[in-house]
Amino acid sequence: MSGLLRFLHDEEGASAIEYALIAGLMAAAIVGALEALDLTNIFESINTTITTALSGG
Questions:
Q1: Greatest CA separation found in the chain?
Q2: What is the pLDDT of residue 34?
Q3: Which of 5, 15, 35, 57 has the lowest tally of Cβ within 10 angstroms?
Q4: What is the pLDDT of residue 13?
Q5: For the packed helices 14-37 and 39-54, what is the interaxial angle rounded to 10 degrees?
């Protein structure tokens, strides 16, 4: 019984779990932000502008 109580009161490793949760939430936020920015259209616009400038038109 004392082993179970020691296990329940043991906080070692709790911070590792907290850091993993924070990292997961940050990753989800970054992915969501990148999806919202729609980078494909931005890079296509840049490519078109550069191609037009280099072709002299």
A1: 82
A2: 86
A3: 57
A4: 66
A5: 50
Tell me the three-class secondary structure of 1-57, residue by residue.
Answer: CHHHHHHHHCCCCHHHHHHHHHHHHHHHHHHHHHHHHCHHHHHHHHHHHHHHHHCCC
The position carrying tokens 């709790």 is: 14
Amino acid of residue 48: T
Q: Which two tokens stand for residue 38?
A: 């729609």
| pLDDT tens-digit map of 15-41 | 778 889 999 999 999 999 988 888 888
- Backbone Cα Rg of the chain: 25
Query: Which residues have C-beta within 8 Å of that of residue 17, sequence separation ≥ 6?
Result: none
